Structure formats: C-alpha cells, structure tokens
Amino acid sequence: MDNLSNSTIQANIDVKGYFFKVLSYWKLFFVTIIIALIVAKFMNDYKPKIYSLNTIISVKEENNPLFSTGTNIAFNWGGASDAVETIKVVLTSRTHNEKVVKKLNFFINYLKEGRYRLEDVYGYTPFIVNLNTSKPQLYNKLLQVEITGENTYNLSFDFNELGSNQLITYDTNVISNYNSNKTSFSKEFKIDEEVNTSFLNFSLKKNSKFNIGEKYFIQFVSFDGTVGANRSISVSDITNGSSMLQLSKDGTNKNRIVDYLNTTVFILDKDKQEQKILYAKRTKEYIEVLFTKVEDSLKRIEEELGVYKEKNNIYDLSEEGSVIFEQTIDLEKEKKGILEFNDYLNNLRSYISSHDSFGENVPVPALISIQDVKIAEEISILIQKSSLRERLRGSVTDNHPSIVVLSNEIKISKNNLLENISTLKVVNNNKLNQLRSNLSSYKSKLKRLPKTEQGLLKFEKNYEISEANYNYLKQKSYEAGTAIAANVSDVKIIDTAKDLGNSPVYPIPSFNYLVGLMLGVVFPLFYIITKEVLDNKIHTAEDIQNNYAIPVLGVVGKNHGNNNLAVFDKPKSSVSESFRALRSNIKFLFKNTDADKSKTLVLTSSVSGEGKTMISINMATVFALSGKKTVLVGLDLRKPKIYDDFDLTNDVGVVNHLINQKTLDEIIINTKIPNLDLILSGPIPPNPSELLLNETADKMIKSLQERYDYVIIDTPPVGLVSDALELFKYGDAIIYVIRQNYSEKGMMRMIDDKYKNKEVTNISYVLNDFSIKNKYGYGYGYGYGYGYGKYGNGYHENEDNKSFFSRISSIFKKN
Question: Smallest Cα–Cα separation from 167: which of 203, 195, 196, 199?
C-alpha cells in the first residue's frame, strides 16, 4: 500500500514537472502564437475569397398535354426523359459549357487593381464590352480603360517588345500573329464608339455612372481555357434516387457564378426542348415544303379543269357520272395515301438499317397520316437518344455508363422500329390489294360514260384529291406549329442562383485563426519534445537522483560576481548561503572522522568547466570564515585556475615543492580571507601524474593535515585524467561537481559504478550553477538557503537584475 502511494506521488510529481517545463517556455509560445495569428491574418487578407452558390432544378419527363397519342402530328414528341446521371454528364461536358461561355462572353476578363492582385470585377464595372467576335482581338493582353469623362474613356496598353503579338478570333477560335512597329497604344474613345483596328474590334456600352479617374482592365483570354476552367461545376442529388439536382459552383466573383449557373440551366433547358421536338421540327419543315407544292398543283389543276369545261362545253357530271365519282374518290384517296406511306416506310427502313446515329436527316413521311403512332414515338426516341449520345461522346468515352445505357436504348428502339415497319408493310399491302380489286369494278362502269364526261370526271377526281391533301396539310401544319410552341420542358427550375450576401467558403477567418492558434502551440510543443528527446544534459537534482546511486549533497546557485570569491565578496547572497548549507550537510560525510582530527575534502568533476574550482574556493572560504584553519591546495597541475581569482601569479606552487625546489612553507600563501591559506599548483609540469604519485606528495598532504583543520584539494577532472582517482585516498569526503545544463548524463557513469562497487566511499554530488528560472524544475529547496524563490526575499542580497515585469509589479505594490 505504501509502495503504491509513493508511486502515485512520484507520478504526480513527474506530471507537474513536465507541466512546469512546458510552462517555462511561455515566451516561445507567446511569440509563435503571435506570429501564427499574424500569418493567419495575412492569409485571410491575401488569399482570394472563394464563394459558393447553387441552383436547384428538377429533371422529370413532361409530355405535351394539348395532344393525345392519337393526334398524328403530336407523335408523343418527347418520348422517355433522360436519366439524371446523363444530365450530370451533359452539364459538365465540353460542348454544353462551350455554349454557356459563348453566350456569356466569359472569355472577357474585367479586372481592377486590388490590394494584392488584379481583382475580378465582372458585373461591377460601369460598362460592358460589346465584342465583334468575327474579328481579331489582342490575345491575353491587359488593356487599361481609364475613365476620362462622363461618356469617354482612354484605352491604352503596351505591345510586346519583340513586336509579335497574338490575336484571337472567337467565332473561329483561331489564333494569329500581328506585328507592330509601335511600342504602345493610347487613344480616347467615346461610349458606343467602335474601336476598329487590325488588332482590336469592340465598343464599350455604359451601364452605370462613370467616375472620372477610375481605372479598369479588360483582357481577352483563351476560349478553350475558359471552357475548361468552368467545367468544374458540381452536380449532386438532393436526395438519393430523386430527380432533384443541385448545381454548385465556386469562384471569386459572385456575379460570374450567378450568371453562369442560371445560363447553364437555361442552355440545358433549351437543348432538352430542342431534342424533344427535333423530329417534329423536321416534319413541320417538310410539311411546309409539301404544302407549297400541293398548293401550286391545286391551282394548276383548277386552271386545267376550267379550260376543259369551257373547251368541251361541259360543266357538270351526269347523274351516273356523279355516282361513279363519289364511289371511287374515297378509294383513290386511300390508295394514294397507302402508296405514299409505303414509300416512306421503305426509305425509313433503308435509313435505319444503314445508319448508326440518327439526327435531322431521318426521313419524314410524304403524307403525315401515319397509321401507327408507335412509329412516330420510336422515331422521336431514336433521334433524341442518338443526339444526346453524340453530345456526350465529346466529353466521355464509349465505355462510360451513360454512353453504354444510351447505346442499348438506341438499339432497342431501332429494333422495335424495324419490326413495326415490317408489320405495317404487310398490313398496307393487303389493303392495297383490296383497294385495287374494288377500283377495278368501277372502271368498267366508267367506260360506259361519254368521252368528254370521262375527262371531266378525271379532272374532278384529281382536283378533289389535291384539295383534300391541301386542307389536310394545312391542318397538320397548324397542329405541328402549336405542338412545337406548346412543348413542355423536362427541366424545371426550383431555385435560381442568386447572391444573398453569402459569406466566402474560403478562406474562413475563424478557422484560419484557430489553425494559427493550434500551430502556434504545436510548433513550440514539437520543439520542446524534440529538445527533450535529444537533450542529454543534467538539469535538476532529480535528474541525478533518478539516474545515479551517489547521493546529492546540495545545490549551488549561479554566481553573478566578477570572480569566484562569492562567499567572501557577498556573504549575504543566496549563493553564499548555499555554501553554508553544503558546510552543514558535509558533516554527514565526515561522520567517520574524529571531531578533533583534521578533515580533508577532495573536489573533482567529469570535465573542465563544471565549476569545481569555484566550489573548492568557496568551500574553503566558508570553513575559514567559520574560524577553522583551512588550506586550499591546487592539485590540478594541467589546467590551474585558482591563482587568477586571488590576483596572484602561478610561478611558484605545488610543482616546485614536489621537485624539491621549494619547501612547504615557501609555497604556502596567506590570503586576504581570515584563516585561509593557499597553495597554488605552480608551473605546468611535463609529468603531472608521476609527481602526484611520488612520496613527496604523500608527505605534503600529511603535513598539511597536521597543520590545518580543513584541507581542501582541487583535483583534475576525473573523466579526463586518472590523477583525481589517485588523490581520493587522502579525502575524508569527496565532492563530485555537476553543472546544470552543461554536464551530460553519461559522464558520471564511471564514478557511479565505482561507488556501487564500494571502490569509492564518502562521495556526494553537488549541482552547480543551479537556477530556479531554468526550464527544468522549480527549486525543491536543495541547499537549504537557495531555491525558495520569492520566499527568500529580504534574507539574501539578490544579485539578479529585476525583470521588466517585476519592476512594473513593484511599482503597483508601492502605490
């Protein structure tokens, strides 16, 4: 239970520690968040605003309600309506969008200088371009239009430097070259005045008030490129399986989107109606031609009849002739109609069998009296499906599902039509045989009439048949025109595209700010995590405790003084207090030493620069200031440093004594610090290890222990040379110095292993250069006098400069 509690506490401490580590980077978070929000602000302003508008249509079969299936000319014109999926393909097809672009002249760009770029101002300019599409225009050239008066403007631009300029003629979509010997063009024009040159042909039409000084740009761009850019219209079902479609389009200019969506629906509606009445229009045109011929024939027969009556002085048929006329006229009309319709069926069958696609060239009936309305229905369906398939082939391959479905439907309609033709041919031939048999019985009766009356009867019969055809065609022409005009579209507009003040869909300012805020947090976190993963430095006492067996004696703060005499120069500073704490804690290391016996303290570190010399000087100082006779011995013979802090030279020292040049008394130096003597290392010898291992060194240490209460030995770094290990035998206590944010975690592995193997005893770590304001901890109170932050105020001489926020805070506190 106790172990579980300790683990929980340790886990909580770790979480708290990591939180404070992250929190210590608040300046970095603040800067990155500000930068990210500034970038988001810039992106919101710089990125062109994209708007999305839509229109809703319904695609449903609608037949003309004015005519029944029995009305010959109606033919049930529309047939089956197109599948919704086919409409989707049509709306994104190249052919369809070419019609929309051409109708709207979308290949003309209207631009105005914006904050970051030329902005599309289509629909917002006080003029529109009236373009002569049959003549060439400068291609892709920015033409500046500057308003100079209420009804005047100045047109200007620069020709290409090489003299060759491209021209485009939109009616033929042909690009040509124009060579100019001028470098620029500038001329003033009036509204509606034709700009008529060899490279520009248009006029401007005013649609709102001119503001003098305003500048706009117009540009004539690629027709095919404009079509391609506008084929990205989105077509989706409102609900699954329904005939309701939503057309959506994105762009930077809402006026362009509205016009394009509404026009694309208008073109679709128009094309659908054209497909539905394509065969009907072809039939009506043929009726008009045939009607004219029959009308001329009727006038000619009427004239011939009058001449015959006057010439033969016969004006009326006899009673017997009238009876024969009435009996044969209906049979002759029916026979004539069947013969003509059989000819039409032969032509239709030949055309259907020899063609794969069917359009306006499908034969129309010589007389419109079609016996079976299914013939007309199948022809209308065949033409409609075939025309739609040809349009789709411009956008998709023959393997596309829409093409495959249409091809199957065309094949079915074609087979049904051929079967109906064959059936009608058999029926018509039987009728013809019966009619010929009936008419032959009347021919014998006709021969009994006088010759002049036979001639009159023939003229009367021809006139009657022609007049009947004339009246019939006149009626059918009227019906056909009415049916075409009253055609009902399959496309119904439910909701037109309209600018209702829609907000842009991109960029979304709130979203960009949120992303900026997240990135402003994520990037520093990523940096901190990466730094933590790659970091191998010692930062806190906990890092030492968690990785090594040797205990931590205490921590020493950052020395802000000009030299290493921190305790002597500033005895009330927090750093001085931390050394006093070390003096108290080190008693535990001296517990095996007699109280009255001299005590020797050895100081070492892993590498140079960890502050071992600074620790040794100040430890010697605190012992001396406590009234103990102390000597500080510099045994770092390779890189001596102590002399500089005492303003001495390193000419004489331990080396001179070890080589028997100087006596011990001659190398001992009295310092300005009471009770503290100093022995410098002296000149750097060629063999420092051998000097420290000889018998003279051993006698020197023993002599010093007899003279002084405390002997403080500053040794070389144990991680670099073996000298320090050899000097451990003299130490009653050993301090191993580790520097915060400098010493690496693996450096102490060797000395820690020796401690575990009991090769080294009475050793402790001291964490040097420790700062509460570092990013890896918050004090913990190590050193009993350093590390309590604001709670130590008033007890120490704080050598740290106050921060800006601290100074501001103190002002408010005073007030």
Answer: 199
